[in-house]
Amino acid sequence: MITFLDTASLLLPLLYLGAVIAYGFVFFAGHPTAARLATPVLRGTVLFHLLYLAGLAVHHGQFPAATVSQALSIVAFAVAVVYAFVEWHGRERTTGFWMVALVFFFQLLSSVLTRPNPPDRAIFHDPFFATHVSLALLGYAAFVVAAAYAFLFLQLYRDLKAGRFSTFYGKLPPLEVLERMMIGALWVGFLTLTGAVATGAFWAERLYHDAWLHDPKILITIATWVLYAVALLLRRLQRWQGRQTALASLAGLGAILFSLVAVNFFFTDFHGFL
Amino acid sequence: MTQHEPPLLLVGTDYRCAPIELRERVSCTGEEAEHALLHLIARPGIAEAYLLSTCNRTEVYLQPRDEDEAYRTALDLIFLKKSPELERPGRLYVKRNGEAARHLLAVASGLESMVLGEPEILGQVKQSAALAEHVGASGPVMRRLLRSALSAGARARQETAITAGAVSLGYAIVELARNIFSGLEECRVLLIGAGEIARSVARPLVERGAREIRVANRSRERAETFKEEIPQAEIVSFEERMESVRGADLVIATTGAEEPVLTRKQLKEAMRSRRNKPLLVVDLGVPRNVEASAARIENLFLHTIDSLDLLIQKNLKKRKEEVPRVEEILEQELHHFRGWYRGLEAEPIIAQLQKQAEKIRQRELAEALSRFPAESHAELERLTRSLVRKILHHPSTQLRGRDGTRDLSRLDLVRQLFRLDDENSQ
């Protein structure tokens, strides 16, 4: 089992890199062979990724989100599944390169940060843990998807504003569609993160009383939640347009990465597992 | 000696050889084209004929029995009778055999069009083919050639980007709108100005199903003329144009006004009242109809004739890059056409070979039957027939070139080996 997990951890970034290259050929060169290969390569890799996560769960006997590496891998997996669904549903491959590139980035980070023995604490076996962490990671995955759409929206917006028609022009869905996808993903992310914060607060209050409130991880997560809440509220009130919301979405992704990686490594004990 | 290329003759003129005044005189459509085709195939020197006439070209493709007669007839009947000026050198082109076939394939693929990759030509080739079929001017060669041409045209559109991207002003606006809005069917269009440019850009928008077209013009008469050409349009007052801007998704200004007809202030107010929904504004006026500073307004996309020209040039460049891929398709289709034609040439030789083998079989069988009991005669008959059929099967397939290794020298070799040219052989 350990050999499989170690090999899979090495193979997954390489397989996603293969998918990124295939989708890159589709996006930049409209290559017909790449177009035929890209989807099967991605779907195959997603299945392999599922086996890897299942293997982690079986081997360690707990939900595979006990370390930053495992959490990043779940985020990568969730983004890949969301994109595979969007592609299947909308028969639309133009955003594939950017989405799969993000998946590759998260999985690469996960593989680099892999630790042989994740901690085994009592809370990891609490059903609240799985609910809280699943909601948080699903939220993060949705915010990653939103950030990818935000990035593409901003590129196309700039092209159309400046009349310069770069590589992005003509290869992406229309601005209105990109904005709709971004806002949709932001709402999914916001609602699931809200659920994660609520379950986390309820659970921590029961276990640790007030001690958890000063944890840097929780503070930065609440700040991220507020950022998304403000962005969605201003968009809803028509005070912000697509461009401002897209910028906020990218800033939110920065906060998530900071919270997931930097805060976990340097500032927190309480949330040290994730 | 066999002829390796299908015998074809093309006589034609196009936008590169002749000005519009001459081209329109020889243009031949509808009944006129029908009569021309009937006249052509009535001549003994012409076996099959096909006539393609569009605003940019008139071309006659013939399968001649007598090439000189076919050429003279096409020249006089289609071209010189109506426009003697075409006799001047360089006004007409003549292509023969494979070159003529290749030309038709290139025309159908849009490689010979004035606007590279123009898609309408494929429909025109198809329509003309139906006419030639209808009057009985098409025969097996022309029919197969047209099938190859239509296949080349369709493949070029599907497998390459030769028709991709807008290359006219109207379609460039459609393309821009499609990059902003989720569907043109939801787009409300306001045209400020009702001149020729307004009409030419409105047509593609109507064709592509824009939800609503409004036109505002200082002179009501001109707006009425616009409506006669574009009946879907609704005329609105020029003075109340800002009211329409608020409800529009796409505004196209084409007036000759000296002062801007849309200022930054007006557009900013309009954007506020439309809750900053995206607005595409296209300024085709010279001098400018829209204040340039309006481009800074959030969610307002201001484009001028220069940015549209940049887009058109970029698309044309992309189409040019696709030409080698289209040429590959042409070569493949031409290869199939030639193969088919060579197969046609092989048929008489195969028939002769089978006839000769059958003659030998019958002669040898007649001699042998007397040595066998009567009840086995039927069995011998069946056996010898099967033997001959099986022996000739592979050589026949090879001669038809169905294995993909077509070599016309084989036909000559078979003729010599089996002395097929000698009527008394065997």
Q: How is this structure best described in words?
A:
The complex is a heterodimer of chains A (274) and B (426). Chain A is mostly helical and 274 residues long. Chain A has two domains: 1-120; 127-274. Chain A has eight helices and no strands. In chain A, α3 runs antiparallel to α4. Chain A starts with a helix and ends in an 8-residue tail after the last helix. The model of chain A has no long low-confidence stretch (mean pLDDT 86). Chain B has three domains: 9-159, Beta Polymerase, domain 2; 169-309, Rossmann fold (3-Layer(aba) Sandwich), CATH 3.40.50; 344-417, no CATH class. Chain B is 54% helix and 13% strand. In chain B, β8, α11 (264-273) and β9 (279-283) form a beta-alpha-beta unit. In chain B, α4 (97-108) packs across α6 (140-159) and α4 (97-108) crosses α12. The longest helix of chain B has 65 residues, at 305-369. The radius of gyration of chain B is 32 Å and the shape is elongated. The mean pLDDT of chain B is 90. At the A-B interface, α5 and α6 of A face α7, β10 and α12 of B.
Which consecutive residue ranges of chain A, at least 5 long each, have pLDDT under 50?
none
Largest sheet of chain B: 6 strands, parallel
The CATH top-level class label of the largest domain in chain B: Alpha Beta
Give average pLDDT of chain A, whole number.
86
Q: End-to-end span of chain A in angstroms?
A: 24 Å
- By DSSP (H or I, 4+ residues per run), the number of helices of chain B equals 14
List segments of chain B where confidence is low: pLDDT < 50 over at least 5 consecutive residues. Answer: none
The CATH topology of the largest domain in chain B corresponds to: Beta Polymerase, domain 2
Identify the CATH architecture of the largest domain in chain B: 2-Layer Sandwich
Number of strand segments of chain A: 0
Summarize the helix and strand pattern of chain B as letters: EHHEEHEHHHHEHEHEHEHEEHHH
Number of domains of chain A: 2
* CA-based gyration radius of chain B: 32 Å
Helix content of chain B: 40-55%
Proportion in β-strands of chain B: 5-15%
Label the structural class of chain A.
Answer: mainly alpha
Chain oligomer state: heterodimer
Radius of gyration of chain A (CA) equals 19 Å
Number of domains of chain B: 3
Q: What's the overall geometry of chain B? A: elongated
